[in-house]
Amino acid sequence: MTIKALVLNLDYTPITVCTVQRAFLLVYLRKADLIEANNVYSFHTVSDTFSMPSVIKLNRYVNMPYKGVVLNRDNIFKRDGFKCQYCGRERELTLDHLIPKAKGGKTSWNNLVTACKKCNSKKGNYSPEEAGLRLSLLPYRPSYIMYLKKLYENSYDEWKPYLNQKESRVA
């Protein structure tokens, strides 16, 4: 696994994740400030030792247009925690349209959920209610910060204060 660094905008909002080498370069060139260092690793030269960045803050504000999460199979699985939203099974996962495409259902964040093959077959061309199935979680469109948090929630403790800021849920 490659070690990553969280990049914050001037106002401390998370904007991206990059390699620690890139983060170190931004700090070294004084384009960013080191906010949190990795407590385990560091960079060494012949004569110096440098902290390995874990969280950096850019020194100038970068205007970011709305950065959304791409609607694709993998991101739907990540949003749903790699579990069937009907029975909780974690194997043989597929995507399910709540309102079937044959009945005018769209391929959108609010109409797609993760389902195991068994539940998806049981549901067939019906709505979950018609098939007698209940969703464990209503589908939603995740924000970029929520996506970063879910992707790295168990990896980097230093990031948690910056990813747990107030987030705006886009529906």
Tally of individual domains: 2
Q: Rg to the nearest angstrom?
A: 20 Å
Cα-to-Cα separation, first versus last residue: 33 Å
Number of strands: 6
Would you kindly provide a brief summary of this structure?
25% of the residues are buried. The longest helix has 9 residues. The protein contains 6 helices and 6 strands; from the N terminus they run E-E-H-E-E-H-E-E-H-H-H-H.
Plain-language structure description:
23% of the residues lie in helices and 26% in strands. With 171 residues, the chain is of the alpha+beta class. Strands 2-1-4-3 form a four-stranded mixed sheet, with helices on both faces. A hairpin with a 4-residue loop joins strand 3 and strand 4 (49-58). It is elongated, with a radius of gyration of 20 Å. The model is unreliable at 167-171 (pLDDT under 50).
Distinctive features:
171 residues; 23% helix; elongated; 6 strands; alpha+beta; DNA Binding (I), subunit A; two-stranded antiparallel ribbon
Task: Describe the protein's topology.
Elements: E1 4-8, E2 14-19, H1 20-28, E3 32-44, E4 49-58, H2 73-79, E5 93-97, E6 112-116, H3 117-123, H4 128-131, H5 144-152, H6 160-163
Parallel strand pairs: 1-4
Antiparallel strand pairs: 1-2, 3-4, 5-6
